[in-house]
Amino acid sequence: MFNLILFGPPGSGKGTQSEKLMARYGLKHLSTGDLLRSEIAGKTALGLEAKKLMDQGQLVPDEVVIGMIRSALANNPQAKGFLFDGFPRTRAQSEALDALLAQYNASINVVLALKVSEEELVKRLLNRGLTSGRSDDSKEDVIRARINEYHNKTSAVADYYNQFGKVVMVKGEGTVDEIFNLLSTAIDKKQAA
Ligand code: B4P
């Protein structure tokens, strides 16, 4: 199995690049944001709880997203690898993911970390909010709260994987294709190593 984490602040291009990467590398795409939004669309109890937090720019509890990933791994026994998008977002989620993968004799091969300035993030998300219908993209204060959550809780994920030498920093500003080429080069190098 080849497993990668696409890492970065909200609006850094994780979802955008995941679409292209899964097509090229045949990895199973697991986005906790997409999984949560489908719970919200289905009006499940979990979705209604998650929506309150997401609308304020806060993370949903670790045990909720870890449970979703546990099920997704169990439901995809044939996958040749996973592309984790927006997960893990805390150190506890990182440790849980490593423990889950170990049950399949697998591990994270690389963490690709997209670097984008805060002003560019806010601009992109407000712009997406014009058409996405996502309530967490429509207000600047909520977007800034999401970026704060990233600094307070999520940047620790890069520190966690850095201790194992698994993090590769990638410039996240430029055209979508330019960034895709940088990500692909980093993956090809890891796969050849
Ligand atoms: P996510 O769904 O993960 O959303 P995101 O971080 O906002 O999106 P992403 O980073 O993928 O967006 P992209 O850059 O592709 O999370 C939403 C919420 O769910 C979180 O705030 C949290 O509440 C909750 N959640 C999710 N996972 C969780 C977890 N593990 N634990 C706890 N809570 C969790 O796109 C942004 C925009 O930029 C798009 O409009 C795109 O077109 C544009 N763009 C992309 N690349 C560009 C480029 N190169 N140039 C210009 N624009 C670009």
Features:
single chain, 193 residues, alpha/beta, five-stranded parallel β-sheet, 8 helices, 5 strands, 12% strand, globular, binds BIS(adenosine)-5'-tetraphosphate
Lay out the secondary structure.
Blueprint: E1 4-7, H1 14-25, E2 28-31, H2 32-41, H3 45-55, H4 62-74, E3 82-85, H5 91-102, E4 110-115, H6 118-132, H7 140-162, E5 167-171, H8 176-192
Parallel strand pairs: 1-3, 1-4, 2-3, 4-5
Helix pairs in contact: 1-8, 2-3, 4-5, 6-7
Overview of this protein structure:
This protein is of the alpha/beta class. It has eight helices and five strands; from the N terminus they run βαβαααβαβααβα. The chain has a five-stranded parallel beta sheet. Helix 4 runs parallel beside helix 5. The two termini are 14 Å apart. The relative contact order is 0.20. The structure holds BIS(adenosine)-5'-tetraphosphate (B4P). BIS(adenosine)-5'-tetraphosphate binds next to helix 1, helix 2, helix 3, helix 6 and helix 8.
How many DSSP H or I helices?
A: 8
User: Total number of β-strand segments?
Assistant: 5
Mean pLDDT over the full residue set: 96
- Tell me the strand order in the biggest sheet: 2-3-1-4-5
Order of helices and strands: EHEHHHEHEHHEH
Task: Report on the biggest sheet.
Answer: 5 strands, parallel
User: What is bound: which ligands?
Assistant: BIS(adenosine)-5'-tetraphosphate
Work out the radius of gyration: 16 Å
Shape: globular
For this entry, what is the oligomeric state of its chains?
Answer: single chain
User: In percent, how helical is the residue content?
Assistant: 55-70%
Strand content: 5-15%
